[in-house]
Amino acid sequence: MIELKNVSKSYRTDTIETLALQNLNLSVPAGEFLSIMGPSGCGKSTLLNIMGLIDEPSTGSVILADQEITNYNGTQIAKFRNEQLGFIFQSFHLINDLSVVDNVELPLLYRNISGKERRRMALEALAHVTLSNRAGHFPNQLSGGQKQRVAIARAIVGQPNIILADEPTGNLDSRMGDEIMDILLRLNAELGTTIVMVTHDDRMARKTHRLIRLSDGERVS
Amino acid sequence: MFRHLLKLMWNKRRANSMIFLEILLAFIVLFGVYAFIFYNLNRYSSPLGFNYANSMGVRMDLNDDLDSLGVLAAQERIRQDLLAMPNIEAVTWVGPVNPFGGSTWQTGSMVRGQHILTQMMFVDEHFANTAEVDMLEGRWFDESDLKGKYLPMVVNREFKERYYPNVTTLVDSIIDLDGEHKIVGVTSDFKYKSNFAENFPLSFFAQPERLAQDDPFEMLIVRFTPGTLAEIEEPVYNLLVGHTKNTDVVIWDMAKDRIKSNRNIVLPMIILIVISGFLLINIALGLFGVLFTQINRRRAEIGLRKAMGATNGQVTGQFVGEMLIVTGMALVLGAFFAVQVPFLELLPIDGKYFYYGIVGAILTILFIVVLCSLLPSRQAAALQPAEVLHEE
């Protein structure tokens, strides 16, 4: 499902070159729930961004859903992201000027889907995260846990094969964090969605199928 | 996508209210300016109906002691003496209302059940030849007409079309307008005030009617060979001073007079265009400012949309689209107000100029908005999602 071969990523300024990832190899089979841990600045988010095609590796290749992505152009990458990937962020990234259901519909706007069908799919996604009763609310009327559930609904509304979650429980208290984790586990179990999650929380990571650790841009376990 | 943007802009209506107001005001000003310009350009495009080039205007005092016959005789002597000079092609005496002179006379009368309102010019029988007036039907009056039962009269096309649209020919018609007159000819368009003057019904009458009021013509139009004004000006002046025995003779170039008379419209038009230009620059800067601020505030949203699958083109289209929606709303409201002007006939001007004004203002504002939205929107599209999503 996800395969990274010899992926390296470096950031260059005028005076210094920072190596964020070094010759990283990783294979994530379909349906796996993988968590990535490591200290701040070790390259976890960079790795997730490269898997999510919102950043490019400096060297190496990325294969997602059996497709070699390295040579895709901007439009092809955008289409792939839209159809195959779902994102969940630590700070939710909801659009405050849109209602909950409109936020959930967002990925579907970039597909050729009628407004009626979009609405149906968005409400279905909200039902998955038991937030149907909040469809007409605005993000600033929700708690942190509810916001993250909206973000999960947005991630799954397009029925992607892969969900990439960047510290999804990082801004939540432990009770809400558990709630979110339960939803992700349920999605993985019921829909077979492959999930890659970056986390600092060892307790959350232990609930997933597999855990890898990064340090200074290298995989250490 | 349109509904999505509409919803987004509606939910941001407070934030967009200032730009909405700015565009609405700009539309109203531009609408007025365009309507004014279109209206005057249309007037300018219709011909004057006479030749002013290579002509000089002359104002002089005739001897007050002369009776009517004496005036006519003196005028004819002066005319013949001028015609005898080299490079002078034609000469005519005209009354106080004359081309580019700034004076207007009007008369109105009920004629067979309809109220006829017409401007008046008193000229002699040589006017058509000297000013090269274009005749639509009939002819200019001559000496024989002055001895007939009815006083002669010539009208312009506007007179005929406004008051007698269904009459095949007005020639030989008798009309009671300050006395019974016989129409001997119809000119094509004739506007004597300026190029921007309205095409208004106009009637030409002969000098005897003014002589009866002890008001003889004291102005001449002298047509000369092209390029000879400088060399004939002084001899003409000397000749006329010799005739009047005083130096109160004023000579001017009618071509310059025309330019001066047009200034009354051209100057406000230029001022309005400059004001509109500043207004458009103001809108452009406002849009730039608003968009740059919005894009800075919405970097995460842009990153999110790109992460969700939006292409660069779709992000550009979104921001241009948002601006177009706010603009569209302001333009619809502005157009609603603007349409009331012709609809309720608030001004005595043909409604089509207001509709042209609406279309012109809409197109100009849309052009400016698209132009000013493109650069910031492209910058927004170029943002890297990995970078901006990491910022929060």
TrEMBL record, chain A:
Question: What InterPro entries does the record point to?
Answer: AAA+_ATPase, ABC_transporter-like_ATP-bd, ABC_transporter-like_CS, MacB-like_ATP-bd, P-loop_NTPase
What superkingdom does the record give?
A: Bacteria
What is the protein's species of origin? Neolewinella lacunae
In this chain the ABC transporter domain maps to 2-220
Report keywords, A-Z.
ATP-binding, Nucleotide-binding, Translocase, Transport
Alphabetical GO CC annotations of the entry are:
membrane protein complex
Q: Which family does it belong to?
A: Belongs to the ABC transporter superfamily. Macrolide exporter (TC 3.A.1.122) family.
Pfam families to which the protein is assigned, alphabetical: ABC_tran
Write out the GO MF terms.
ATP binding; ATP hydrolysis activity; transmembrane transporter activity
Question: What is the protein named?
Answer: ABC transporter ATP-binding protein
- Which CDD domains does this UniProt record tie to the protein? ABC_MJ0796_LolCDE_FtsE (cd03255)
From TrEMBL, chain B:
Q: Where in the cell is it found?
A: Cell membrane
One Gene Ontology cellular component annotation? plasma membrane
According to the entry, every stretch annotated as the ABC3 transporter permease C-terminal domain falls at 273-385
Enumerate the transmembrane spans: 20-41, 265-292, 323-341, 353-375
GO MF annotations, alphabetized: transmembrane transporter activity
Which part of the chain is the MacB-like periplasmic core domain?
82-228
Sorted alphabetically, which keywords does the UniProt record give?
Answer: Cell membrane, Membrane, Transmembrane, Transmembrane helix
Q: A single Pfam family, by name?
A: MacB_PCD
Q: How does it sit in the membrane?
A: Multi-pass membrane protein
Organism domain of life: Bacteria
Q: What is its main location?
A: membrane
Q: Which family does it belong to?
A: Belongs to the ABC-4 integral membrane protein family.
What this protein is called in its record is FtsX-like permease family protein
Q: Which organism is it from?
A: Neolewinella lacunae
